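Thread amino acids onto this structure.
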């Protein structure tokens, strides 16, 4: 037990102070992100929309994410990650507060589109910040710590949100989301200093770089397609899965939040030691990506059985281990491939892959459920993982 504890502590050593502060801020921000996991239920139960309407509204969530990811990458390359992060989180807070006052279909589409366009401009910037504030040998663990903080926050958020929804309703969650975004960025501004400006020579070199180099990299396109497929399956976690838990197994919001907490607890306990262990092994990044796609595929195949509630736990565990390998190592692949001065463009393409999945995943999955039922959707979703396995194998041998 003492050795396990020592290994756990060792996995956190050597990371910079700025990375710890970034993780703290992410924890606070994500703990306040209470509406997102219950958005599909909020739209159906509180506002009375059907699955088809919900799928279009959630598609706007994805479109906004694409716009924000692209914009965030461009702005990061021009103005630097620091300014983009500060402006994005502050305005996102105001947008979340305003969303609670919108209940019309087109108003929700536009409001969520705008909110996500602002919110997801933050994503390329924070990943570029990880590269700026960490040593190359610590990059994967720095990403792991940031993800641990995000997931711990996402564990606290849905758990509290489920309790708040049952007792107070949905509207107060929008206030919490907005206030925590603003609080997080105020802390970031005072705790983390902007890196020193690049020398004039460096800035001149950056201007000469081919700004479209990320879009001419064939292997990088294959990697982006893998990320898209991964996202198509993974984002069922915030669209189809909560509805499945509620309609087929009659779980209320609080119990759904508790099931999602399983995902967070596994990540908090195992992800950093696992990444620390794997980083010491000379294993190609692409192999971990392949394994994550395989676990993702299996996690949805097991859901085809819909009469034993324990299968929900098994699926969640498989999904979590897939996530623990998939996100850090797809991220590492990008950061290691990105040219200095173009990190924002590379990270934008990476995050856009997931953002596009946000558009199509809820639309396709909820349409399949509406027309053919949940079991067909789970088989279809497992197919994304299978395609990811094939492409990962190609990428590994490219």
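Threaded sequence (398 positions):
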């Amino acid at each position: 037990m003492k050795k396990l504890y020592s290994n756990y502590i060792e996995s956190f050593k050597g990371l910079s102070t700025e990375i710890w502060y970034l993780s703290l801020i992410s924890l606070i921000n994500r703990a306040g992100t209470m509406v997102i996991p219950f958005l599909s239920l909020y739209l159906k139960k509180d506002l009375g929309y059907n699955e088809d309407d919900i799928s279009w509204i959630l598609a706007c969530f994805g479109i906004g994410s694409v716009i924000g990811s692209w914009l965030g990458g461009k702005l990061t390359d021009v103005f630097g990650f620091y300014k983009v992060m500060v402006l994005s989180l502050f305005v996102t807070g105001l947008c979340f507060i305003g969303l609670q006052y919108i209940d019309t279909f087109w108003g929700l589409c536009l409001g969520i589109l705008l909110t996500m366009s602002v919110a997801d401009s933050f994503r390329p910037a924070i990943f570029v910040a990880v590269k700026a504030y960490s040593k190359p040998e610590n990059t994967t663990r720095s990403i792991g710590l940031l993800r641990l903080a995000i997931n711990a926050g996402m564990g606290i958020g849905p758990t509290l949100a489920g309790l708040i929804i049952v007792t107070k309703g949905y509207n107060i969650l929008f206030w919490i989301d907005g206030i925590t975004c603003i609080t997080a960025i105020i802390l970031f501004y005072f705790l983390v200093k902007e890196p020193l400006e690049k020398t004039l020579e460096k800035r001149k070199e950056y201007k000469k770089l081919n700004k479209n180099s990320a879009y001419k990299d064939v292997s990088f396109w294959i990697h982006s397609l893998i990320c898209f497929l991964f996202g198509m399956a993974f984002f069922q976690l915030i669209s189809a899965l909560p509805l499945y838990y509620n309609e087929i197994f009659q779980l209320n919001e609080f119990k759904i939040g508790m099931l999602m907490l399983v995902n967070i607890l596994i990540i908090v306990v195992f992800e950093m030691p696992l990444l620390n262990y794997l980083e010491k092994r000379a294993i190609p990044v692409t192999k971990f990506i392949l394994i994550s796609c395989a676990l993702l595929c299996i996690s949805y195949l097991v859901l085809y059985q819909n009469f034993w509630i324990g299968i929900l736990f098994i699926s969640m565990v498989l999904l979590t281990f897939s996530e623990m390998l998939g996100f850090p190592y797809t991220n590492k692949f990008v950061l290691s491939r990105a040219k200095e001065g173009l990190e924002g463009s590379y990270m934008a393409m990476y995050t856009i892959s997931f953002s596009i999945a946000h558009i199509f995943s809820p639309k396709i999955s909820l349409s399949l459920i509406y027309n053919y039922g949940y079991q067909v959707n789970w088989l279809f979703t497992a197919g994304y993982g299978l395609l990811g396995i094939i492409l990962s194998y190609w990428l590994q041998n490219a």
